[in-house]
Amino acid sequence: MTQQTRQLFGTDGIRGVAGEFPLTPESTYLIGRALGHDLVRTTRTAKAVIGQDTRESSRWIADRVAAGLAGVGVDVHSAGVITTPGIAYLARSRGFAAGVVISASHNPWTDNGIKVFSGDGFKLTDQRELAIEKEIFGLLQNPGAADETALKIAAPCLPGEAALRQAYIESLASSVPADLSQLRVLVDCANGAAAAEAPELFRRVGIQPTFMHVTPDGKNINEGCGALHPDTLGKTVADSGGNFDLGVTFDGDADRALFCDSSGRIVNGDGVLLAAARDLHARGKLSGETVVATTMSNMGLEIALKSSGIRMLRANVGDKYVLEEMLKTGATLGGEQSGHIIFRDGDATTGDGLLTALRLMDIMVRSGKSLTELVGDLKVFPQKIQNVRVREKVPFAQVPEVKAAIDAGSGASDDRGGVGRADAGAYGQDCGGDSEGAGGLSRSRAGLRPAGQPRRLSPHGALVVDSHHEASVGSGES
Q1: 365 DSSP 8-state letter
Q2: Residue 109: per-residue pLDDT
Q3: How far is residue 322's CA from residue 440's CA, in Å, rounded to a whole number?
Q4: Active site residues
Q5: E strand residue ranges, 181-270
Q6: Contacts of 166 by beta carbon, 8 Å cutoff, 6+ apart
Q7: Cα of 348 vs its chain's centroid, Å
């Protein structure tokens, strides 16, 4: 079985509509059993930690996965409602063989997902996912093969163990040495997982916070708020009449964050990477003077970093691929325009929106500069990011019309603009070029289209541009 033939695991775990395959009561239980078998093959006394976001379906899905894990002998601990990076932290710091998150991140409340971290806090390798998937399909095809005798019984996953959530909050609070007590911050928790940890965390580190969208009801996660709708935050800050120094907004599972300055101007992951890279570089902590971004990152970021003596590498879209490139090159900073920022100067193994917010505020306080001043020289070139629904997610390199257009644009590009692309196998969302999503969506990023170059599109995707020149995005014509 190859990566192309995987049917359940995508770049960010398993996603779908709650209640429909692969997220039915039966299949989620079998997913738990298959994962449990994988764990006990290595460690007979394996422990796993599970957490969830605030979706209506997260409770029963978490309970079913936990039942499957416990049924094959795994000792299951629940952290209740917690961020995705919170589970990654607990997995690597508390001796768990795996961490499981029930969340669909920025997707609508009707969707959900299952993401798994190994005991070191990193996402499962493709090989382990394939082995687990093979067992799941084997059990589905032959239900009688599953031994329904439960070796252990899992307790309900909610409310979960408060001590686990506290351990995560304490680790974040201790990561920032600066006095943040003078900062007035508006915080949008997206009615998601951040609502469970952000209020206590931000008050503990002394910030003067005001919170919005912190009353989840199971159906309002990401609804008109959070990182999917950063303009909601920006408008509130702008209309406040100077009451806030900064605004921060998270997505549903808080593995990413976007910001706005005191005037309400939105600052995405490119701006955060610029501020963080310069700070680490000035303190001699930017390994190799290198930052890992993606093909979606604006050309303006690359130019601004270059002016500071910092090299920018581009990985494929997806925090998974950013992290792979970071580990390969030894880079200590990487991230996506969507707000997934990975700090490897500590022990983080994934993007963490709460940590990103604290790090950015720490930079502001230590430098004595506002967010506007920190990113004021970032010239954002015209750029269009668009989701395109496709029949089949075929890599752009295998679509002759799109490949020809990309090659033609690449040959004509210069320092003022460039071609970027997202493979049709990557998932997308509308705001900020996130790498997660559920099925059928392909993203493309704008690149240079030379004068007179016709737009070349196919049903598989679109080519878009970021440059000083004419920006165009196709709508299906060829």
Answers
A1: H
A2: 98
A3: 22
A4: 105
A5: 184-188, 208-212, 246-250, 257-260, 266-267
A6: none
A7: 13
Q: Are 81 and 130 in contact (CB under 8 A)?
A: no
Q: Going along 18-162, which residue ranges are E strands?
A: 47-52, 75-81, 98-102, 111-118
Q: How far is CA 384 from the centre of its chain?
A: 20
Which of the residues in the chain have pLDDT under 50?
A: 1-4, 413-478
Torsion of CA 187, 190, 193, 196, to 10 degrees: 50
Q: How many CA atoms lie within 13 A of 409 on its CB side?
A: 29
DSSP lists the bridge partners of residue 102 as 52, 114
Peptide bond into 450 cis (omega under 30): no
Q: Give strand ranges (E) for 273-393.
A: 290-294, 311-315, 333-335, 341-343, 385-389
Q: Which two tokens stand for residue 279?
A: 């700070």
**Nearest to residue 426, comparing CAs of 295, 256, 267, 326?**
295
Task: Name the percent of the chain in helix, strand, coil, to the closest 5.
Answer: 35, 20, 45
| Residues ≥6 apart with Cβ < 8 Å to 74 | 36, 39, 40, 46, 47, 48, 97, 152
Q: Where are the beta strands (DSSP E) in 369-477?
A: 385-389, 441-445
pLDDT at position 7 = 82
Tell me if 222 sits within 8 A of 109, measured CB to CB.
yes
The strand order across the sheet containing 290-294 reads 311-315, 290-294, 333-335, 341-343
Instruction: Write out pLDDT tens, residues 116-170.
Output: 999 999 999 888 999 999 999 998 888 666 666 778 999 999 999 999 999 999 9
Q: Is 326 helix (H, G, I), strand (E, B) or coil?
A: helix
- Residue 41 is predicted with a pLDDT of 93
Q: What is the separation, in whole angstroms, between the first and last Cα of the chain?
A: 36
Which residue shows structure tokens 């998937």? 133
pTM for the predicted model, two decimal places? 0.83
Residue recorded with tokens 């997934």: 340
Q: Which of 98, 138, 136, 104 is nearest to 19 (CA)?
A: 104
Q: How far apart are CA 248 and CA 230, in angstroms?
A: 9
pLDDT tens digits, 266-316? 999 999 999 999 999 999 999 999 999 999 999 999 999 999 999 999 999
